[in-house]
Amino acid sequence: MTNDLRVSVVGCHAEGEIGDVIVSGLPIPDGPSVYARMDAFRSRHDALRRLLILEPRGSVARHVNLLVPSSDPRCVAGAIIMEPTEYVPSSGSNLICIATVLLETGRVPMHEPITRFSIEVPGGVVDVTATCQNGKCVSVEIANVASFVDRLAAPLEVAGVGTITVDVAYGGMFYALVDATQLGFRLEPHEARDLAVLGERVRRAAREQFDVVHPENPGIRGVSIVQLNEPFQGAGKVTRNTCIVAPGRSDRSPTGTGTCARMAVLHARGELHVGEGLTHASLIGSRFEGRILGETRVGNRPAILPSIRGRGWITGYHEYVLDPTDPFPAGYLLADTWGVGGDATQDGSTG
User: Fold this and answer.
1) Residue 91 catalytic?
2) Do residue 134 and residue 154 come from a single domain?
3) Among 91, 93, 139, 147, the one annotated catalytic
4) Looking at residue 17, which CATH number applies to its domain?
């Protein structure tokens, strides 16, 4: 059999969320930064993202991360983070997977008990502190990109729900944050489908009604994910949440960038301070530990320097091929398995 393509992928998940790492086989785009490389890949090679994420090779629950050279000499690598409907500036769960794969496959030398290095993602440079023992990456702490509030307690008209109050914050992508308990939810596993339906409605409404733009990069704009949470239980205590990833399914992890966005909101309200932390628990009970490392500014906005800590596990080693006679070289989707929204892009198209 001859194949047009052979792609090597290391499977990995972080606290339940799949973040597979592409180690060879795809074209590496040029560019002066990882953000520019991401833009080039998106414009020239998006069919390859679809090949790996859509059926018959992937699913709506999968993310893939392409290792690329970094433009920053401090970094061991760069990474383009590809999700079911978009390319994102940063992602805590994906970065934990990337760090775990880099260390456990020997691409970055492992030093016990602590290994430190940096990775460039489209949103900027993140610092990694990995706890290592007996050749295993036991946990990963990511000092994420600066996070900030866009608006607090904003009214949002949601189809089938009415007017609700949301916060909008950036933690590596833009989130709309909603107290789901005010809408009758307890954030329990049996509610997952209904939470996904609500989250998709909120996301669509927020994208239509809020024009949110990163003050230092106008290419980063629009609400990407909806966080449905319970009221903050206090520093050091566990707070439940679920983040609805487009096109409408719960993140299996507590969501790293979502935890950073929540900490930015809590800090802006005076409920969480530098040095304090937030522990988020997902619908499956997995946890991320967040901390506020410091304060800064993004453009003219006050911001925090957040970190999130979690665990990753390699799940397998895969080689994907594309037979020249395969009728689905860019994959396909059907709404019965592709989230509650059934869309392939943030703005609602299936193409």
Assistant:
1) yes
2) no
3) 91
4) 3.10.310.10
